[in-house]
Design a protein that fits this description.
The structure is a single chain. The two termini are about 40 Å apart. By secondary structure, the chain is mainly alpha-helical. About 75% of the residues lie in helices and about 0% in strands. Helix 1 runs antiparallel to helix 2 and helix 4 crosses helix 5. It has five helices and no strands. It folds into two domains: about 60 residues; about 70 residues, no CATH class.
Length: about 140
């Protein structure tokens, strides 16, 4: 097993792998290396906890422009996916069947970005479900 992989936190392992190379070259003392890796790990985890606190305060905010930005991204993503994968084909069929002389319907470009946003949203939803199963969510 590669050193550092026992943590089980993929993004943390990636960050440590990036930092570990220069640390190995610059610091010959094994104890100092371990101490520095520990400090980097704590700093990364601390920033994650800080972001979680910001997220909680945003979600509890009274203004829909602060608390509602994530649901808005979800709805835009859902509407875009519905148009691109279902409604566009049905509308194009109806147009060709009943209104063949009208201009073509607009198609979405950038489906790669759309799928990236979708997977990000699904990942957040999966994390939320995990929190609820652990009893960490309200």
């Amino acid at each position: 097993m590669k050193k550092g992989k026992e943590m089980g936190i993929p993004f943390l392992d990636t960050i440590l792998d990036v930092v570990r190379g220069p640390i190995d070259k610059l610091i010959p003392d094994k104890n100092q290396k371990m101490q520095l890796e520990h400090e980097v790990t704590m700093a990364v985890l601390g920033s994650g906890l800080s972001q979680m606190e910001v997220n909680k305060q945003e979600a509890a905010h009274r203004s829909v422009f602060v608390a509602g930005w994530r649901p808005a991204v979800g709805w835009v993503c859902a509407a875009s996916l519905a148009w691109h994968f279902v409604l566009y084909d049905l509308a194009t069929w109806a147009q060709l069947a009943f209104f063949p002389d009208t201009p073509a319907l607009p198609a979405l470009s950038g489906t790669g970005e759309l799928v990236t946003v979708l997977f990000s949203m699904l990942g957040l939803g999966g994390l939320r479900s995990f929190e609820k199963m652990r009893g960490l969510a309200k």
